[in-house]
Amino acid sequence: MVKRTRAEAAASGRPEDERLGIGKSFTYGVQHVLTMYGGIIAPPLIIGGAAGVSTAEIGLLVASCLFIGGLATILQSFGIPFFGSRLPLVQGTSFAGVATMTAIVADGGLPAVFGSVIASAVLGLLITPVFSRLVKYFPPVVTGTVITVIGLSLMPVAAQWAMGNNAKSPEFGSVSNIGLAAMTLAIVLLLSKVAVPAISRLSILLSIVVGTVLAAVLGKADFSQVWDGPIFAVPTPFGFGAPTFDVAAIVSMFIVVLVTLTETTADMLAVGEIVGTKVGKRRIGDGLRADMASSAVAPVFNGFMQSAFAQNVGLVAITGVRSRFVVTAGGVILLVLGMLPVLGRVVAAIPYPVLGGAGLVLFGTVAASGIKTLSKVDYNGNMNLVIVAASVGLGMVPIAAPEFYHHFPAWVGTIFHSGISSAALMAVVLNLLFNHLKPAKAGSDPSVFATATRVIDYSDLRAFSRLKDGDRIVDGKIVDAEGKPVQVCDEEGKPVPYRIGSEPEGH
């Protein structure tokens, strides 16, 4: 296949199709693996611990999740007909279902978990055509809100990593841990400023390497257990026995599937916005089918529900490397790590404070991308400000108060414990209510929020292009039909004093 340059890829309208070559692809792919490694191994550690399995069996679960994560990432980014969004989107074990699977494992063990994932993912696969037709209901006011909350919801993860990740450790939250995270953050920022593109784009990877070396010098990195255990191991199909199928478990996991589909849709739209490529309903449908197909196959190799990883969306934004083949290379690396536990143990030896320092930039970049998208939204004479306010507010609830839904039925917690799904559902519903089902009449101010956002640029004032029916001049000032003053701003958006018939004061 002919190698496509960045200019050719951009000209085709698909910047993600750029091919960087094997060397660069795998180098940048390592960054993606390092970014999501902690997230992909955490669910099997939690679920395996709840199941009471041995340390060796937990190791098998971890290796299996790496293995299936690699397969899912390759399917999503490289794609085959009808499966895969062909976007730079990394897949891995979803956090959305951890609480549900922990509850299931207490009653039916791991076989019940695997059975519920298989059945619910198949049901999810059947309903993906419905989700793929919802693209028109994800305008910038919705996508910008969700992207912002994705970034904000990941901040507690970065903070936890920076403190050391283990709350029971006496070093948790120590000055040395946070100092190491701060130094890693400083290295990221310094390397990002370097004029050499190869260095600035690899700033995350290089900062993690330098931070790990620094941690080793300070005695905060331990590689002594790297050679403990097998060097090569292939995940054994149904290593924990044949799956069992319980109706209640399947129903509860299907709720998780709905949340996962919502989050993956949001992530596809987010990465499409960052890359600058069109993401239509066909592409979303292919991406969701890949999500559900890999989730259905995952339990065969002792894995769990798969979904897109939001933190890797931030990596695409901060590095500017938009090639989907870089993510495919990352999938190959995950696949190898799943078969070579010794390499996984090397990556696992990277101190969490180092990952936390780099994570602050990554996750912050996601939020910044969302804010950039929200800047494109028109807030004049509509309810878009209310949509953003209510959606961000609801999305922040489980982040600010993780126990907020503990007294509600389990299905409520399953849906709303994720700030991402909370914000996405609220934004979609309010967008339907305010912008589709009951649109405001042209020229009207439907709420105090819409009125509060109305300003007139001084340059527009001269042409009276922003005045509305009922606006009038009282004592040299513009007021609306209800007698409320209309603010006039300069070209930079700053309010200026004025009187009609003269230049604004100071101009």
TrEMBL record:
Family recorded in the similarity comment: Belongs to the nucleobase:cation symporter-2 (NCS2) (TC 2.A.40) family.
InterPro entries hit by this protein: NCS2, UacT-like, Xan_ur_permease
Name of the protein: NCS2 family nucleobase:cation symporter-2
Membrane topology annotation: Multi-pass membrane protein
Keyword annotations from UniProtKB, A to Z: Cell membrane, Membrane, Transmembrane, Transmembrane helix, Transport
Keyword Transcription regulation attached: no
Localization annotation: Cell membrane
Residue stretches spanning the membrane: 34-52, 58-75, 112-131, 138-162, 174-191, 198-218, 238-261, 325-344, 350-371, 383-402, 408-434
Keyword Cell membrane: yes
Main subcellular localisation: membrane
Highest taxon above the source species: Bacteria
